[in-house]
Amino acid sequence: MIRLLGTIFAGLLGLAFGSFLNVCLSRWPAGESIVHPRSHCRSCGRTLAWWENVPLVSWLLLRGRCRSCRAWIGSRYPLVELAVGALWATAAWQVLAGTTSPVPSDLLWAGAAYGLSQMILLWLLVALSVLDFEHLWLPNKLTIPGTLIGFAATLVYAAVNSKRVFAFYGAFGLRSRFIWHLVGQRLLAILAAAGLVLLIRWIYWLIRRREGIGLGDAKLMAMLAAWLGLPGALLAFGLGVVLGAIAALVLLVLPSTRKSTEGWAHIKLPLGTFLCVGGIVSSLWGERMIDAYLRWAGL
Predict the structure, then answer these.
(1) Cα atoms found within 13 Å of the Cα of residue 84, Cβ hemisphere only
(2) What is the CA radius of gyration of the chain?
(3) What is the pLDDT of residues 212-265, one digit of tens each?
(4) What's the predicted TM-score (pTM) here?
(5) Is 95:115 a contact under the CB 8 Å cutoff?
């Protein structure tokens, strides 16, 4: 029952934060404040009533159009709200697996720290994926703070969890060594993940004499490594590259692409969007995927 109620609550909370994310996605590229003015139609400027701001429900009731000017609101709004709600519900369902009542306080704090970090990461990845898809933009205001928050969240979760583990085994002196080891390991992961993209970027420039990958993608990989560690970030990178290759092949067979005067080689693909999708998969199911691969490889 706790698991079901927690999942429902996380899903509803995700819908609300997805609605807030839509405000950010609409205003950040235009350089507007996300606080003022109040939510309004971007076509006619009319301030929206409270019932027009209910996540997902309002869009369905209004059939995707403004009540006054009948301008098309866009399918991105319900999709983002639904994505954040579904992802937060999935994260809560995983975190609350096997939960019993009453929950020991140490397990409660460890689970809460991990669940909160998962939700923050998923929110950031949805935001970055949409911004890169719509504007080919991975803003520093998200990637750099996201890296710092991910690094801090990892340390907080490790500190809370290690207190329980080492106290159980009576190894109090090992706790600080464990945390410092994790700090060094995670810093190396961040540098390695960002360095991988920078290396590919440099090789592409040597061959083509023009940029092929933006610096934002390197910062995104650093953020993924801060949250997921190097194995999780590399899994996200691999998934993102595969998704990007599939998208490129689809573009190649489209008649509009073949008739383009610039040619398919000049078409820009949102690599950050694919990396974010890979990061979402790695965040939710990465450990099981890596374990399954290691068993398959006999490692």
Answers:
(1) 29
(2) 22
(3) 888 999 999 999 999 999 999 999 999 999 999 999 888 888 776 556 555 555
(4) 0.90
(5) yes
